[in-house]
Specification:
By secondary structure, the chain is α/β, with parallel strands linked by helices. Helices cover about 45% and strands about 20% of the residues. Helix 12 links the parallel strand 9 and strand 10. Helix 1 packs across helix 9, helix 2 packs across helix 5 and helix 3 runs antiparallel to helix 5.
């Protein structure tokens, strides 16, 4: 079944995300509040509770076996390292629930509200990113008068979040909630209408063409990398223009294009009869585009007489492309179980925090008689 169009709704605290989510529900979107899923995990996931007790202290779990969310919040919003640790535990669990929900829904449009949407792998599931914004003083006013916070508490929460302008820079749609409610409603209706007029994932993606990337594709590649990166990591796909230029010479990227825009890419290279796929990027996720891209990667590897193709995929449980890899013949593999030359190649190239998937390309090694 075709996956629905996914709107990712984000913005800093007290900028009107929940109100915009209600408006999208009224227009016909199936809505998901990531905060509510976080509460569900904190209340009902034993493994998450064990982690919180261990990392943040036994006082964070009440006598009734529930997470004391107020105490937990007071800890993490004063300690960036603690907040990062909590998010590293929560994000994969939330992502897995949302990805499962999206894959099972029959609704044509899903709107997912998540304050850390752009900082998590959820971004790769979204066809559009909507960002709410308002002046900082208005945020303070809403938090003090509407949520009963002190101004000091409001300042602490706001200062713990990324700058609003950084989120706006990544937005497909910006909703300014600083004026009348009717003005916000009109912005939402206009953006919804534009979305409904565009080809979506439930419609044919059109002819998919594959080509090798060149220097003129640097900006598009930077955009793909930024949207599929949940955290910096030392692999060949890190979104740095000088590194991209270097990689274009040393390994290269295959691009998948449809409707005149780049819909996916894979960073790859081949040496010693082994092809290495360092990263698959699909924004938004589309299985047809992904299958075409992976088959092109394998064909390019076969053209270079490679015996095997490796993919180095994220270890996170909610990787939306996990089913895609299997459908294209890639199987989860322990590098230590491979024969000598393949094992050495995998261990030398495998970035930290990834797992190895393998597809055999030839029935017998190169040079072995038929």
């Amino acid at each position: 079944m075709d996956r629905p169009v996914v709107i990712g709704l984000t913005g800093n605290i007290a900028t009107g995300k929940s109100k915009v989510l209600e408006m999208l529900a009224q227009l016909g979107a199936f809505t998901v509040d990531a905060d509510q899923l976080v509460h569900q995990i904190l209340d009902h996931d034993p493994a998450a509770q064990v982690y919180i007790r261990t990392r943040f202290g036994p006082g964070t779990i009440t006598a009734h076996g529930m997470v004391d969310r107020a105490l937990l919040a007071s800890i993490v919003f004063r300690d960036p390292a603690a907040l990062q640790d909590l998010e590293a535990m929560i994000h994969p669990r939330v992502g897995a629930l949302i990805n499962q929900l999206i894959s099972e829904l029959k609704a044509p449009v899903v709107a997912v509200e998540a304050i850390k949407l752009l900082e998590s792998p959820l971004r790769a599931l979204c066809h559009q990113v909507w960002v709410t914004t308002c002046p900082e003083e208005q945020q303070f006013e809403r938090m003090v008068s509407g949520r009963g916070m002190t101004r000091a508490q409001a300042v602490e929460r706001i200062r713990s979040q990324p700058r609003q302008r950084d989120k706006i820079a990544q937005a497909d749609v910006v909703i300014d909630t600083s004026k009348r409610l009717e003005d916000t409603q009109q912005q939402v209706r206009d953006a919804w209408q534009r979305l409904c007029e565009q080809p979506g994932p439930g419609m044919p993606v059109g002819e998919i063409t594959i080509r090798r990337a060149g220097p003129r594709d640097l900006e598009a590649l930077e955009g793909l990398l930024a949207q599929t990166d949940s955290a910096p990591r030392p692999d060949p796909g890190h979104a740095d223009r000088s590194r991209l230029l270097e990689n274009l010479g040393q390994q290269g990227y295959l691009l998948a294009e449809s409707h005149g825009r780049i819909r996916g890419a894979i960073a790859w290279n081949a040496e010693n009869l082994v092809a290495h796929g360092h990263r698959v990027m699909l924004v938004p996720y589309d299985e047809q585009v992904g299958q075409t891209l992976l088959e092109a990667f394998c064909q390019a590897a076969q053209d270079l007489m490679c015996e095997v193709a490796f993919l180095y995929a994220p270890t996170v449980a909610h990787d939306p492309a996990a089913c895609l890899y299997r459908s294209c013949g890639f199987e989860l593999t322990d590098p230590a179980a491979l024969r000598g030359i393949w094992r050495d190649a995998a261990q030398a190239a495998m970035p930290p925090g990834t797992r190895l998937l393998m597809r055999t390309l030839r029935d017998r090694p190169v040079g072995q008689p038929a």
